[in-house]
Write a structure and sequence with these properties.
alpha/beta, Maf protein, binds inosinic acid
Length: about 180
């Protein structure tokens, strides 16, 4: 049994699907922790995990994610939640009018094993769609088309998304580690 700390139900649904498939049981610690503002997704993930080690006690993991858009000089990256909360997907589409639409989504898992923190990263290239496609409306998914797919991540099932997503890829690396630990 492994604990996943997040206040985001979508994240838990995705990590749970992939863990179950691999025969690993998880418990969702639905906790909203204060996210430090750092200039990299790795640092935010690591620092958030580090701050929770005494509070959670036993081994657990969390993750931090962000979208990096080429035409915006790879912004917002570590500022992805702030941008989502402020200008949102509509604002991103406006900023990208007539611009190149490549983007990369990154997830960095931080796992506290009771003694140290380990990180596992996953990356997915893709493009920003021309409009918003509602479905499973999680963050940037309504405007992000992962490479190899012809629709936005919001229109994929959790299983389909996990096969190509940044989180799915980070989870596969993490699960490999857990199986060999
Ligand atoms: P955080 O990892 O919760 O800090 O996420 C940063 C921002 O990216 C938030 O606005 C999330 O809603 C969004 N986000 C995180 N993961 C995903 C994803 O898999 N798809 C779409 N948006 C995401």
């Amino acid at each position: 049994m492994i604990k996943f700390v997040s206040s985001n139900r979508h994240k838990f649904e995705e990590i749970d699907e992939i863990l179950r498939k691999n025969g690993i049981e998880s418990t969702w610690i639905n906790l909203k922790y204060e996210e430090v503002q750092e200039d990299s997704i790795e640092k935010i993930s690591w620092e958030s995990c580090n701050r929770l080690t005494s509070k959670i006690g036993s081994n657990f993991f969390l993750e931090d994610s962000g979208i990096l858009i080429e035409a915006l000089n790879w912004f917002p990256g570590p500022y992805s939640s702030y941008i989502q909360r402020t200008i949102g997907n509509e604002g991103i589409l406006k900023l990208l009018e007539g611009k190149k639409r490549n983007a990369t989504f990154v997830t960095v898992i931080s796992y506290w094993d009771g003694e140290q923190i380990m990180q596992f990263k996953g990356k997915t290239e893709g493009v920003i769609a021309n409009s918003i496609f509602h479905g499973r409306d999680f963050g940037y998914d309504p405007i992000f088309i992962p490479e190899g797919k012809s629709k936005t991540a919001s229109l994929l099932s959790i299983e389909e998304k996990n096969e190509v997503s940044q989180r799915g890829k980070a989870m596969i690396r993490f699960i490999e580690y857990l199986k060999n630990a």
